[in-house]
Fold Uma2 family endonuclease.
Amino acid sequence: MKLPASERKSRYSYKDYLKWDQEDERWEIIEGIPFDMTPAPSSRHQEVLGSIFALFYNYLADRRGKVYMAPFEVRLSDSEKDEETFNVVQPDVTVVCDYTKIDRRGLKGSPDLVVEILSPGIAAKRDKVVKFKLYEKYKVKEYWIVDPFHENIEVFVLENDAYQNRNVYVKGDVFTVSIFSDLLVDLNQIFPDETF
């Protein structure tokens, strides 16, 4: 989507976002700034995404909570109005325990856990800096930054409204999810050996 010069703004809202043709493109808005998410992810990214989604999907099958895989819109705002919502993201994996936040368009409010899987380049910086601050601001309880190429996961847990607890896990490690104390994550299953 290329915005005509006459329609360019310094800050975009969810109301603007809803007008964009996203059939062949994916966009996010962070603090009113649009980011193109269109480049196709790598096969490794998709394998790791599938493993993480399956982990939560299977765990939540008989429990309260839902898991969504991108594209799934998460609207983070202090306002209920579309024109006053300046953050719309599509995390790779979103876990939600409060069903009242889910609507036909996605999620309105903070999820309980978000997973972003790194891609090379600028998008990685966005996940590590810009989205980190955004998820912290809107009090996402647990944030994972997954590096599929170096086979590690950085886990940030919200304490006193800030990500003060950071752990890094590598292939071979097993850890517990903070919001689900009986869910163990085995990184050998998240990062299977490549077969090509």
